[in-house]
């Protein structure tokens, strides 16, 4: 999609530090990490947010593919023994800033208080 920063990263127009890729998704380091590991898990197909993604059969298939890849990604990031958070911000009230659905994989230190 034109004008989408993550589509441009997926196309290779904007550089990123990739840590994982398969036919459905790419994972790259967040530009402003909040922890030693802060990776964005991003489907190659553009959906604006998790609500839109999970509202279509294609989106649900992609979600399934994303969760299938999670163990390999977690191991690639060295997070399999100590754990991690997988966070999605969906829409305005959740503070989503990039309107191409993505999951933050965060870990590598104790992550502090939970709000939920
Ligand atoms: P969210 O606020 O949940 O939409 O998350 C968007 C995330 O994208 C933020 O954590 C940003 O730091 C990150 N981000 C924005 N632009 C880039 C970029 N070019 N490369 C890597 N991460 C980015
Ligand atoms: Zn996009």
Describe the protein's architecture and organization.
The protein has about 120 residues and is of the alpha+beta class. The radius of gyration is 14 Å and the shape is globular. Helix content is about 25%, strand content about 20%. Strand 1 and strand 2 (about 25-30) form a beta hairpin. The chain has a domain at about 45-80. The protein is built from three helices and five strands, in the order αβββααββ. The structure holds adenosine monophosphate (AMP) and zinc ion.
Largest sheet: 5 strands, antiparallel
What integer value in Å does the Rg equal?
14 Å
Structural class: alpha+beta
- The amount of helix comes to 25-40%
N-to-C SSE string, H for helix and E for strand: HEEEHHEE
Shape: globular
Overall pLDDT score: 97
Number of continuous helical runs: 3
Beta-strand content estimate: 15-25%
Bound molecules: adenosine monophosphate, zinc ion
**Low confidence ranges:** none
The total beta strand count reads 5
